[in-house]
């Protein structure tokens, strides 16, 4: 009976133990420990200081006493989650028991002599465009007689939004370290965010850890609408077969208090009104994702003046903030059907990148392979046209290996290769021109055996040649 209980206990605890084991296999980045080592080696010579710090970080001995338990919950699994204090976060120590080790908080950390007192942080105040944060230094506490200097580590966590929601707060981030008990922060906090702060006092003897978090704080100045996109530029992509023109409108992302949610692009043809001035007859618009800083505008009329605009849109709570529209004029008279002169550029900028296999599909005893690639940033000769070539380089059955390859043309950035054979290796190229000395891209494609697809599709009517 006891054996069964032990097996069940091990099965329950093992996933958690293994996750902790993975967590502590590497030395943890610990700002408190780093500062302690800096203070411990403060008086060493320049040559000896680096060696002193390295030894301190590898042989860390944290203050406090490990908890004592006759039957710790990790003991049943007999796993060593750590080997040294330096592998444990914050103030935790590597505590050994009869059948393993775990990272645990010391039981007497708040009463250990010789450590600086745990600070008490005050509510942040905003004064003259600066955020002032104060905390106690432990004066009057028994721990005030700490030998050597004391440094304070200030951390922050925050979330975006008009209302404070503790569950949305992010990870703690190091803000600064100082030997003062007051800091004045300028331009360190962003509008539209809620912040919390905590502070820890560190000496060469160690630390009692971080204080309780401060009350939540948000700067008085709310977020401003985002700025307009920067550096608008129009690139001609050539004339289409129906006589219309395609251009690429590009811009730079502006710096903003809030993350960009999306862009909105407007374009309109300008014609002369009754008074002789230019008027817009029809305004077109399209939404562009936040991570895309360009758009291809198609079907523009030749020999016409167009007014192009781009607007930045951010979200704050349930509301949206919109920038002013950045604008540029463009005359399609300058767009000819002849190839435009190619700008000076690095040799590899015309290479087609990101050529990859998406999936191999079996349907009705036929094989197809879908491939995709990244669009070229600049194509003048034939906008959006790609030349796909594939040829078998090796087949298990030589009779199935064609001497010549297959070629196809597409205006998309994906394509389905056809007439593929089982157990053949193919060399696939996607090029920006029909004839190239060296391929713009290359992909090796290996087609599995017929038996592989038969297992996948579970089709009893499918037969494979022997």
From TrEMBL:
SMART domains (UniProt xref): FN3, WAP
Query: Which residues constitute the signal peptide according to the record?
Result: 1-19
Q: Name one GO cellular component term.
A: extracellular region
GO MF terms listed in the record are: peptidase inhibitor activity
Give positions of region: Disordered. Answer: 205-240
Q: Where is the composition biased (Pro residues)?
A: 213-229
CDD domains from the UniProt entry: FN3, WAP
Tell me which InterPro entries the record gives.
Anosmin-1 (IPR042447), Elafin-like_sf (IPR036645), FN3_dom (IPR003961), FN3_sf (IPR036116), Ig-like_fold (IPR013783), WAP_dom (IPR008197)
Give every WAP domain span. Answer: 59-107
Alphabetized, the UniProt keywords read: Signal
Q: Which residue numbers delimit the Fibronectin type-III domain?
A: 115-226, 228-338
Q: Which Pfam families match?
A: fn3, WAP
Write out the GO biological process terms.
Answer: neuron differentiation
> Matching PANTHER family, A to Z?
ANOSMIN, ANOSMIN-1
Protein's recorded name: Anosmin-1
Q: Which organism is it from?
A: Chrysodeixis includens
